[in-house]
């Protein structure tokens, strides 16, 4: 996807949300079969965003421009070690919006060491 842009919005069960505008990294992102990683400043407002009980109710992907993309899944890693995965698997192109509701907690927080 060379000429398109992706925005991500994460909406938590308490209705709080964060937005990543123009998801991008210095790497060649959105290539077929590749796993892209975005972190720190690359994820805008979603860096340090708190999601109570890791309950993401909507993971919204907005495409703009041309050049489609087919994400299989998105993983959200939290500082305490928790991991939530949202499944997609559908092409997004031509200014479409995907709203994913199938997000699940794959890994709970890491136990604290005493």
Briefly say what this structure is:
With 114 residues, the chain is mainly β.
Please give the structural blueprint.
Blueprint: E1 4-12, E2 17-20, E3 56-65, E4 73-77, E5 83-87, E6 97-100, E7 103-107
Antiparallel strand pairs: 1-2, 1-3, 3-6, 4-5, 5-7
Please supply descriptive tags for the structure shown above:
114 residues; mainly beta; Lipoxygenase-1; four-stranded antiparallel beta sheet; three-stranded antiparallel beta sheet; globular
SS content category: mainly beta
Number of domains: 1
Order of helices and strands: EEEEEEE
Q: Please mark out the parts with pLDDT under 50 across 5 or more consecutive residues, or reply none.
A: none
CATH level 4 superfamily: PLAT/LH2 domain
Q: Name the shape in a single word.
A: globular
- Beta-strand level of the residues, as a percent range? 35-45%
Tell me how many strands there are: 7
Tell me the CATH architecture: Sandwich
The CATH first-level class comes to Mainly Beta
Arithmetic mean pLDDT: 91
Radius of gyration: 14 Å
Largest sheet: 4 strands, antiparallel
- The helix tally amounts to 0
Specify the helix fraction band.
under 10%
Q: What is the CA–CA distance across the termini?
A: 47 Å
Strand order of the largest sheet: 2-1-3-6
Q: Examine the coordinates and then state which fold CATH places here, giving the name of the CATH topology.
A: Lipoxygenase-1
């Amino acid at each position: 996807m060379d000429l398109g842009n992706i925005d991500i919005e994460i909406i938590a069960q308490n209705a709080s949300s964060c937005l990543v505008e123009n998801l991008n990294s210095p790497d060649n992102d959105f290539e077929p079969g590749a796993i892209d990683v975005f972190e720190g400043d690359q994820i805008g407002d979603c860096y340090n965003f708190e999601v109570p009980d890791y309950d993401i109710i909507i993971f919204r992907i907005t495409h703009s421009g041309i050049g489609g993309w087919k994400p299989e899944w998105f993983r959200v890693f939290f500082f305490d070690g928790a991991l939530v995965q949202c499944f997609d698997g559908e092409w997004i192109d031509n200014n479409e919006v995907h709203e994913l509701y199938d997000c699940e907690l794959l890994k709970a927080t890491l136990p604290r060491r005493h």
